[in-house]
From TrEMBL:
Transmembrane segments: 6-39, 60-81, 101-129, 141-165, 177-199, 228-246, 252-270, 282-304, 324-353, 410-435
Topological relation to the membrane, as annotated: Multi-pass membrane protein
Subunit structure, as described in the record: The complex comprises the extracytoplasmic solute receptor protein and the two transmembrane proteins.
Keyword annotations from UniProtKB, A to Z: Cell inner membrane, Cell membrane, Membrane, Transmembrane, Transmembrane helix, Transport
GO CC terms in record: plasma membrane
Name of this protein: TRAP transporter large permease protein
Domain TRAP C4-dicarboxylate transport system permease DctM subunit stretches: 12-429
Compartment list: Cell inner membrane
Species assigned in the record: Roseivivax halodurans JCM 10272
Family: Belongs to the TRAP transporter large permease family.
Main function: Part of the tripartite ATP-independent periplasmic (TRAP) transport system.
Signal peptide residue numbers: none
Annotated GO MF terms: transmembrane transporter activity
Length: 437
């Protein structure tokens, strides 16, 4: 077999192993090792595996992963998400479908201090959904809003997916974070507009009853300020330090984790057992992410050795398909894969093949990364995988609420994300202007 045939066979073998249920990281390591051994020999494969382990994980940058994960978990247990929702509920109570819009913007703010979409889905399914249903919103709409807006957790920095993309594409994590701000705000506005349109054009979808006689919890000026302080403090420390140039991403993660720890301790939400569990969970998430990055790096080097990326670049760029034909096919592939496997796995499988093609096409890799993250996040809302949907279902534990109802509630937000994705394709500066400053 030629190296090119071995490369294509490795891709096919990876897909088959994943379909059979083998863990993504182990499958990638296995096919990569066999591929390099067939192209060269066993000794080269062993040496490359050792080099990948040394090169891909020794960087100081990787300390950012456990720090931001720990910050997100600490924020989740200290009820900052509930405070955020209470603040926006107070601000939006007189707006049509105001609780839905409040949920979107509360999720956007919460995303800026967590970076994990599933954390947002868990918190707001327990905070926002009961409040919305109490005020006459349908459960389908309430859960759809929470699921839809939870995707902001992986777009608005700090974002775990942005970190993974930056590592794989060899881009600056700080610039990737900056590039997520504009698209995150765009998506929040598109979601809010979608809610307003639904409230006016499809009232039966949004409201169980239009006669809302339930009282809103009132916040005194003192309570309002007290709930704002932790949120604003963390945003100032993390985002202010990062965007102001005072902190690099790893230092910003450390400052954010320390700030979140102080908030949790002051609120007495960290008994010893809880803190230990959070540390263990942080370690588990970090190790799994770093192992997947190692496997994806080995897979990428095997593909480069086989010549598959060069062949695909010629196929897409030297024919009538062209660069934007490749981009559309790439985004469609990611959206389809999102129906089947999780976000990080999609990026680890697809990016080693797609990045060389995108670079040959002359695409800005920062912009390409933002498009990738938005398309990947669509998979959180689409059946049958729809991780955010299943997270909400397990968090609410309502026997009258089916998974199908939640998926139907997310449909308008899937459409809104497609619109936002199209806008980002047409207007790249939305993602790149801040990162280029």
């Amino acid at each position: 077999m030629s190296p090119l045939e071995i490369g294509y066979s490795a891709v096919g073998g990876l897909v088959l192993l994943i379909y059979l249920g083998m863990p993504i990281g182990i499958a990638m390591l296995g096919v990569s090792f066999v591929g390099v051994a067939m192209i060269r020999n066993d000794a080269v494969a062993l040496n490359m595996l050792g080099a990948v382990g040394n090169d891909s994980l020794r960087e100081y940058l990787f300390a950012v992963v456990p720090l931001f994960v720990l910050m997100g978990l600490l924020v989740t247990v200290s009820n900052v998400g509930k405070d955020t929702f209470d603040v926006f509920q107070r601000m939006m109570r007189n707006v049509t479908a105001g609780l839905g819009i409040a949920t979107v913007f509360a999720n956007a703010v919460f995303a800026s201090i967590t970076g994990i979409s599933i954390a947002s889905a868990t918190v707001f399914s327990r905070v926002a959904v009961p409040e919305m249903t109490r005020h006459g919103y349908t459960k389908r709409f309430a859960t759809g809003v929470v699921a839809g807006s939870s995707v902001l957790g992986m777009l608005i920095p700090p974002s775990l997916l942005m970190i993974v993309y930056a590592v794989l594409a060899e881009q600056s994590v700080g610039r990737m974070f900056l590039a997520g701000v504009g698209p995150g705000l765009l998506l929040s506005v598109v979601f809010a507009v979608t809610i307003l349109i639904l409230a006016r054009r499809s009232k039966s979808f949004v409201f169980e009853t239009t006669d809302d006689a339930e009282a809103y919890a009132d916040l005194s000026p003192g309570d309002f300020i007290r709930k704002c302080i932790p949120i604003l403090s963390l945003m100032t420390v993390v985002l202010g330090g990062l965007y102001g140039g005072f902190l690099n991403p790893t230092e910003a993660g450390a400052a954010g984790a320390a700030g979140a720890l102080v908030i949790a301790l002051l609120r007495r939400s960290l008994p010893k057992r809880t803190l230990w569990n959070l540390m263990v969970e942080t370690g588990q998430i970090t190790v799994s992410v770093l192992f997947l990055i190692l496997a994806a790096t080995f897979f990428s080097r095997m593909l480069a050795l086989s010549g598959v990326p060069r062949e695909l670049a010629g196929l897409f760029l030297d024919t009538s398909i062209g660069p934007y034909g490749f981009l559309i096919a790439y985004l469609l592939l990611i959206i389809v894969l999102g129906c089947l496997i999780d976000s990080i796995s999609i990026m680890l499988i697809v990016l080693p093949i797609a990045l060389p093609v995108a670079e040959a096409a002359g695409f800005d890799l920062i912009w390409f990364g933002v498009l990738t993250v938005v398309a990947v996040e669509l998979g959180l809302l689409t059946p049958p995988f729809g991780l955010s949907v299943y997270t909400i279902k397990s968090a609410i534990e309502d026997p009258d609420l089916s998974v199908g109802d939640i998926f139907r509630g997310t449909l308008p937000f899937v459409a809104a994300m497609l619109v936002a994705l199209a806008i980002l394709v047409i207007f790249p500066p939305i993602a790149t202007w801040l990162a280029r400053l």
